[in-house]
Specification:
Length: about 290
Amino acid sequence: MKLARVLLPNQEIHVVVVEESAVRVLDFSQVQNVQRLTDILHSPDPAGLANFLIDTNVAPVAIEEVHFLAPVDQQEVWAAGVTYKRSQQARMEESDHAASHYDLVYSADRPELFFKATAQRVVGHQDPVRVRNDSSWSVPEPEFAIFLTPEMHVCGYTIGNDMSARDIEGENPLYLPQAKVYNQCCSLGPCVTLGSTDLDLSSVEIKLGIERNKAQVFSGETKLDQLNRTLDELASWLGKEMDFPNGAVLLTGTGIIPPDEFTLESGDIVTIEISNIGQLINPVEKG
Ligand code: DO4
Ligand code: MG
């Protein structure tokens, strides 16, 4: 089952169940203590609760008529890094100073985990992601993202874009937060696919396409079984020594990085597709 936060044609924001070609609006007035998408995700039976909440008095709304908002409420968004061989190689090449850090973290017990965004800095499907004004080498990072309960259990998946300024990150590893965290630095959505970690990773494909002036300027793909860590392992490292009363979203790292001569430009369209999860499309803005 897929759930989302959407803006309806009447400008109301609602949590919905997403079906093949329409969405079904949920009515939260039927139960106590369920007010947000997160409350459903963290409940013992998210699919059962969502089915129960479908407002049968409201007609299904066609998917083309709704605007998908980022599927986050108050969760912090975190990200794992250097979890694919491709990411380790690219980072070692872009940095003179930190090459051995990237090499070591790829195979170390403790993964790289960094704070990526508050919900306010996350954009949803079709809304613009941003390239920093002070970066001349920026790329999207297409990533499989997991939703975690306060107990650090995986309760759903979505598509994520960990926008990154490679020049700032490569200049000095201490600049990583500035390379990664700024307004509109992260995109998530369009929906949350309910599920836990019993996923056949080898069947999950991640694709990235970048379009400029209606022509494809980059495309790449990988599979989730190239991820060097398990989802549970990443979740449990994130939850060490840190409570997440609102749950968390964790981006699991990128396995697709455009060649070094590529940088995003204003007006580019970034499309990230993950099999069985969907397609996340965002235009790029600079400035
Ligand atoms: O080490 C820097 C960031 C790595 C990252 O974001 C990734 O591998 O996806
Ligand atoms: Mg990343």
